[in-house]
Amino acid sequence: MLAQSRYAVNHLYALENWAEALPEPPAVPLTIVTPKELGRISQLSTPNQVLAVVDLPGQSPELPDGLAGGWSLYLDGVQSPSNLGALLRIADWFGFHHVVAGPGTADLYNSKSIQATMGSFLRIDFRKGDLADIAAHFPNLPLFGADLDGENIYRLQAPGAGMLVIGAEGPGVGKAARTLVQRWLTIPRAEGRAAESLNAAVAAGILCGSIRGSVSV
């Protein structure tokens, strides 16, 4: 948290042993608290050793040019905060530097979302947006979507840049976004298996890993 610049840190509340382990005093105010006090001010059932009070970053009205230069995720109505957090963590792991949340997507600053990112929210450019605006602004950016009837992901020769659209659990990608997706991808199920579908974050992890393995992102 202290080594990044996306979020301005205003105050730290930390356990004494965490503060003593710092190589040098932090440049922001620090208050030592007991484990019981940390539990009271944290929204987590099992708080860590430190809590930071930060300013939420504003969002520029301009779409980042980086969307056209690599791979990114678009989340179409992903309502589960835990899935949202896991998707940011997946994007961070596989080098998808931008995640755009479409209408109906959970709040990143829900405590469950933040906890599920395991710190990846500090490194990913996350913003709200509409797929139609992205398609209009970047007409040459290939738009891929996850769907059971798509082409085999393991046979994909991925381009150097693209956006992968991930839909909500159950309904999948919504009608409005479906009209904009150009190619559909699926993860083939093993022959004879009866599972109907995969969790959205699990599916995204497999798709992102396969894309990452076929192109440098």
> Beta-sheet strand percentage?
15-25%
CATH topology name of the largest domain: Alpha/beta knot
CATH class of the largest domain: Alpha Beta
Question: In order across it, which strands form the biggest sheet?
Answer: 6-5-4-8-7-9
The helical percent reads 25-40%
Contiguous low-pLDDT stretches (5 residues minimum) are none
Give the biggest beta sheet.
6 strands, parallel
Distance between the termini: 25 Å
Overall structural class, as computed from helix and strand content, comes to alpha/beta
What is the overall silhouette? Answer: elongated
Q: What's the order of the H and E elements?
A: EHEHEEHEHEHEEHEH
CATH superfamily descriptor of the largest domain: SPOUT methyltransferase, trefoil knot domain
CATH architecture of the largest domain: 3-Layer(aba) Sandwich
Rounded mean pLDDT is: 92
Count, helices? 7
Any idea how many domains?
2
Radius of gyration, in angstroms, nearest whole number: 19 Å
